[in-house]
Amino acid sequence: MVPAALAQEQAKVTNWPGYIGWTIGLLIVIGLVYWLMRQGWNWRRTLQSGIPPLPAVPARAGRTILETSGRYHGTTTAGNWLDRVVAHGLGTRSRADLTLGEDGLLVQRPGDVDFWIPAEHLTGARTESGIAGKVVPSGLLVVSWTLPEPSAGGTPTGTIELDSGFRADHPDEHAAWVEAVAQLATRTKTKTEEAAQ
Hints:
Blueprint: H1 4-13, H2 16-47, E1 64-77, E2 94-101, E3 104-108, E4 115-118, E5 122-131, E6 134-150, E7 156-168, H3 174-196
Antiparallel strand pairs: 1-2, 1-7, 2-3, 3-4, 5-6, 6-7
């Protein structure tokens, strides 16, 4: 005859209906959290629907100044590293190949949307510890740029200032990128001002 304590222990171990119930409950909670995250993402995309389209991506970035590979961590409104921009595919983290040329910065993302920052839209670069809610101990290269807001007539009425974060496969390259982007932005600004005179 099986002792009462052993029978009770076996009943606990083989309480399959209880385990199945808890598992289904946990799966429902995970599904609900995922659905809420997705709704938040879509809500942010709707709020940012007024962000103008990105410039068309060219085949080349002009004469190459620097190239590197790494990860794209996201784009935020300038100065607000938690305000992620998700419009036009800018919200997705991905692998990225960066090419800085005389004409601007070409960001090629395998399996995702490529984007292009013309030289006249670059305003500078710096290193930071994080962007878009993501902290990276080895640091990030943050490129600052502007996106003109066209009016009904096509002339820009203002600009949206943005920061895009990248982490090169070799983070020691970040300093060279900061200097090169700053030089290109300054050179382009000087040319634009001279042409306007």
